[in-house]
Request: fold
Amino acid sequence: MLKPTEAQDRADALISQAKKAGADAADAIYVCDAATQVQIRLGNLEDVERSEGEEIGLRVFVGKRSATVSSSDMDTKILSALVGRALDMAREAPEDEYAGLAPEDLLLKAEPHPIEGDDGQDPEPELLRELALKAEDAARAVNGVTNSEGGGASAGRSIVALATSHGFSGAYSTSGYSLSASVIAGDGDGMERDYAYDSVRFLEDLENPENIGKEAGERAVSRLNPVDFKSGAMPVVYDPRVGNSLLGHFVGAIAGAAIARKTSFLLEALDTQVFDSAVNIIDCPHRKRGLRSKAFDGEGLPTAKTRLIDNGRLTQWLMESASARQLGLQPTGHASRGVGGAPGVSVTNLHMGNGSVSKAELIKDIKHGVYITELIGMGVNPVTGDYSRGAGGFLIVDGEIGPPVSEITIAGNLKDMFKSLIAADDLEYRYSVNTPTLRTDSMTVAGG
Reply:
């Protein structure tokens, strides 16, 4: 793989070509990835895959007209032709009064904030095979597990470089490792599956494979023999591994493009109380070894810790430059992009802060409710906030987690759900988006 400085040189060179060829403005993004994946099933090696690739994307502006092109071939003649094609396409494109690079005065000018995101390792497939095998063996050793979908381990490194024609140039590298196990418990019509996984930036931080396997096996077995229950309005408690999906819906609703198009259920919510006053939601782009940590965004703006929800109040939209111009506001440093198309927005390491009660205290007064550990489908209306999803998990009976339930439906409206959310105090930073255990009392649950 290239070094970050070499990747930066490639992006800079393409920008220089575009300017010489007649572009009024341009930006370029270079991405290089290399990954090794190993899959084990029933103790046998099932697949080893190595992938390497590089792409470069160029966006050019001719006045208010723009076009984006990309290539996976770094040959100088190919890239020269790419520049010409981009300019020809831009001249024929419709004008867009909001298009353009980020405001020059907002670009990252200082030394980028140090991001501890790359351990520089490239482990051999044999090590990954051993990790996957240990995870699957531990899962299959759990009493009640009858079959396996496999254990998997992967290792990869990426380099991203971004350059703009008005003064920004930067690059960074990241490493990434994952380990998973997925098994089946029971037999016949009573089979249930579940999984566990871990994903980290540094190999030394990867969860013990035996723990991952044991967790997967115990989860699968715990779901055996689901029971029927009485449907109706009742409290719903989200396990942290699915509670983070609620923040995904929140992020989509505060994206600048959704606000500009008027397609968000939080359209009128800026600077109002969206969650309970005890709730804080924070984006942390500089977290050491964070899964999405980065020093600059997809337009070259500096990233910064952002309290999106401050004591329940929505503080800002997430904006790249185009939606910011449309809304008459400033971009917020949340632009994200690939090699094709214009920037969108995304968060980095997002979390909801801890509440003040334990998980046991959160559910102790629930006479009849459900504890959700799995969500199925995407029945969410982003315009109205109406929410209806298939789910699985466990009954809560007299303040205790009880027998499993499956193929149920949980429904409500995200605006009501957000306002009623209560968080436990068990936050862990396991994913890129993290929440404690969450409770909402504003939902309807129907049995399968």
Summary: The chain has a mean pLDDT of 96.
